[in-house]
Write a structure and sequence with these properties.
By secondary structure, this protein is an alpha/beta fold. The protein folds into three domains: 2-183, NADH-ubiquinone oxidoreductase 51kDa subunit (Rossmann fold), CATH 3.40.50.11540; 191-266, Ubiquitin-like (UB roll) (Roll); 274-355, de novo design (two linked rop proteins), CATH 1.20.1440.230. It is 42% helix and 14% strand. The chain contains 16 helices and nine strands. The protein has a five-stranded mixed β-sheet with strand order 6-5-9-7-8. Strands 3-2-1-4 form a four-stranded parallel β-sheet. The longest helix is centred in the last third of the chain and has 16 residues, at 291-306. The termini are far apart. The relative contact order is 0.13. It binds iron/sulfur cluster.
Length: 359
């Protein structure tokens, strides 16, 4: 696995031989895209953020089905700190905040030791507030400032006005871990970490190229009678299709959003029931700022709790379908906008399972 490679800060030394501008060009040329989910080009983000007063390493991973950041922290925290050093040099930044989700606080000591021994820049570990929304790139700013972790309107983007109203670059931890690898001869910008779980023989994190087929991944992880595939909580779902190509472009064609948290389910699982737990997740984790997201997800959860006791009326199922569009259309941030993608695609691809639940 490239991500496990020990580069021992040698690539930071190579990076420093370039000017910050030339370094950013190298990152742009590498084709590296952000690994936090938005797939934004890293070099371009750096160009827009520079000179950045602050860099934030976002390690607030907490979506169901995603555990790749934890894998990086377990296997190669040194390369993240090296990536941060390269980024800080390129961005002319003097301060980095390393935002660790609350459940990752066990890594704090290990990271501080590496920072003390190897980092040339000031990196401060911040323990998260224990909420999924803190991983959103503007909510994380509020959280670090000690405010309630609500999202901010964009624009302005953090690259224009971020932490304490200063220019800020927010990068995902896997993105930063890949920065030193750009200097390796065999760097491959398509490699990404897939978190695989569900009905499989070998759940875990796999480093594979974007563009592999679902069949390839299913065989590799030993998927057991795959029937439904969910892409995290926010990416949507599809029936198992052997030839589906796992990439942003191809996933869009299915009406879903590419997500590297891949959950395989066999047909003993109920798709509406999986949707119920996803709705429950978004109902608990939204920040409460906008009504469509807050109340819409709450109402959806109430309706999904109905089927634990009785079938839906036709009217109730119509309300569910209305809420599927109402919630994202009126939501301010990505959480609300993606909270009904799984349900929408589940009804599209597994309609028969829902029909059985209607009077
Ligand atoms: S969409 Fe949801 S999570 Fe996002 S700002 Fe609105 S209430 Fe908060």
């Amino acid at each position: 696995m490239q991500i496990k490679r020990k580069t021992n800060f040698e690539n930071f030394k190579v990076a420093k031989k370039l000017s910050p501008e030339a370094l950013i060009k190298k990152v742009e040329k590498s084709g590296l895209m952000g690994r936090g989910g938005a797939n934004f080009p890293t070099g371009l983000k750096w160009k827009m953020s520079r000179p950045a007063k602050y860099l934030i390493c976002n390690a607030d991973e907490s979506e169901p089905g995603r555990f790749k950041d934890k894998f990086v922290l377990d296997n190669n925290p040194e390369i993240v700190i090296e990536g941060i050093n390269i980024a800080m040099y390129a961005l002319s930044t003097k301060q980095c905040f390393f935002y660790l989700r609350e459940e990752f606080k066990k890594y704090k000591e290990k990271l501080e030791k590496i920072i003390k021994e190897k980092s040339k820049y000031k990196i401060t570990i911040v323990i998260g507030a224990g909420s999924y929304i803190c991983g959103e790139e503007t909510a994380i700013l509020n959280s670090i400032e000690g405010k309630r972790a609500e999202t901010r309107h964009k624009p302005p983007y953090p690259s224009e006005r971020g932490l304490y109203d200063e220019k800020t670059c927010v990068n995902n931890i896997e993105t930063l871990a890949r920065i030193p690898l750009i200097f390796e001869d065999d760097f491959d910008n398509e490699l990404t970490l897939f978190s695989v779980s569900g009905d499989v023989q070998s759940p875990g994190v796999y480093e594979e190229r974007q563009g592999i087929t679902l069949k390839y991944l299913a065989e590799k992880v030993g998927a057991i009678d795959p029937y439904a595939i969910f892409f995290g909580a926010s990416g949507g779902c599809i029936p198992f299709q052997q030839d589906l190509i796992l990439s942003y472009k191809e996933m869009e064609k299915t009406g879903n959003f590419f997500q590297t948290g891949i959950m395989f389910f066999n047909n003993e699982k109920s798709v509406p029931d999986i949707c119920r737990s996803i709705i429950q997740f978004f109902n608990e984790e939204n920040c409460g700022k906008c009504l469509p997201c807050r109340e819409g997800n709450f109402r959806l959860l109430q309706l999904f709790q109905v089927i634990l006791k009785r079938k839906w009326t036709k009217e109730e199922f119509q309300i569910i379908q209305d809420l599927i569009d109402f919630v994202p259309n009126g939501s301010q941030c990505g959480l609300g906008k993606s909270s009904t993608i799984a349900l929408k695609s589940a009804i599209k691809y597994f309609k028969n399972e829902f029909d059985k639940l209607i009077e």
